[in-house]
Amino acid sequence: MTSTHTPDPAPAPHVPPAATTATVTAPADAGGAGDRRRWFALAIVMTAAFMDLVDVTIVNIAIPSIQKDEGASFSQIQWITAGYALAFAAGLITGGRLGDIHGRKRVFLLGIGGFTLASALCGLAANPEMLVASRILQGGMAALMVPQVLSIVHATFPAHERGKVFGLFGAIVGLGAVSGPLLGALLTEWNLFGLEWRPIFLINLPVGIAGLVLGSRFITESRAPRALRLDLVGVALVTLGLLMLVYPLTRGEELGWPLWGYLSMAGSLVVLAVLVAYERRKSARDGSPLVELSLFRVKSFAAGIAVQTVFGVALGIFFLVWTLYMQFGLGWSPLRAGLTGVPFSIAVSAAAGVSVQKLVPRFGRKVLQAGALVMAAGVLLYIWESGRYGLAITSWQMALPLVVMGLGMGLIVAPLTDAVLSQVPREHAGSASGLINTVQQMGNALGLGLVSVVFFGTMSDRLTPARIGPAYVDAFQNALGWVAAVLAVIFLLMFALPGRPAQHVEGDPAEDRTGEKEPALA
């Protein structure tokens, strides 16, 4: 169950979770009505994956418009994105297990229906509080919907056809990475029917309803014969620990850093310790823990989890402050900000393809480390250009650092999962895959919370109109300095990854924990 959600104006590729359990339903036979049904089913789940991806990438570009229209505080702005990431992270593993137990089709339809309802609530939100609550609900529904996508593909298509199917998913990822921010910018700029930012959510309604109706007809039900049990206590502990850490970070600056905030953040470590103790007992009792703690005895996996978490923090910080810098600080329109991010998206996609197909098989771990250094170089170049040109900086002047950053990020995101999983025992591949992507979402939520410290924390509470632009430029440079430092930490952590990560390519399927062979996604 893998997913890399990055809520940003020009995001990294987002890959729906891979199927990690065997199914009791054999793929439909090629030809005839069965063949048509499975391709209809593929189109439906691909559309759902695209809707999820676009919904994440579409929001950040509209956040300044939301803030102006709704009068949202900066902490509420952070929670519009962090709340989604937190709910998605907390529910990912459980969403996959629910599909294994109760049927992937059933849970997928529940997820897409709930996601559509939550989108309507977002679009009709009467105040910032309702919008934040609706975004949290939307993230929870995505956690039900998204893990089923490639599980349904696995149940529907024979092994020799899955490479072609996953190639189509790659095309969808690339399309969503570019079209999401642009669609968000256009919908916000056009102000359809005077609705301001609301169409970015309401556009999901016809798509979601169509997916619900067609999915109920064309998707074939499947379950896992030996599904792991739910660990709702583990989910509750993870969610509580993250809330106790992220909430004080987002509200601390606004409230003057009260004592309860520090106590809450310290208490989150206690909750984490309780989680570890509970998961040990859960593993010994029924073998279905939320977190398989034995995985952390594998050095490369433990280091990889750290890399994924810290990388999520870096992305959470950068992409939110970037859109605030362009639209609040520089006064750019949503469309101009969206178009500025296109070179970044293209660079990420191009480098990701080259890294997996050409570079990693030859140079191994060094490619990922080079990616961290190249991305850090792009960040430092961006800091320099922001300081040199100030408020007069143009989109084309930003293109060079964004392309450098995109190339570095592309070298990391595509092969990282394989590098982390390469030394994990086969029987734990599914649990490890779900955990990798869960912690990246958690890191993303933490990074969004840290924006209060590294960005808003550097600005005065009372800014004159003449000082707003320069203050945002200074805050942006400070935040990017932290991002560069985080990337340096990532470079060092990568020394613990295997020198030659296992590569999963078409025709070289990986075996899941049940022993059934299936392709793995980078």
UniProtKB/TrEMBL annotation:
Subcellular location: Cell membrane
Keyword Transmembrane (UniProt): yes
Topology of the protein relative to the lipid bilayer: Multi-pass membrane protein
Ranges for domain Major facilitator superfamily (MFS) profile: 41-502
Transmembrane segments: 39-63, 75-95, 107-126, 132-153, 165-188, 200-220, 227-247, 259-279, 300-325, 337-355, 367-384, 396-421, 442-459, 479-497
Gene3D superfamilies xrefs: MFS general substrate transporter like domains, Multidrug resistance protein D
Positions of region (Disordered): 1-31
NCBIfam families: efflux_EmrB
Protein name: MFS transporter
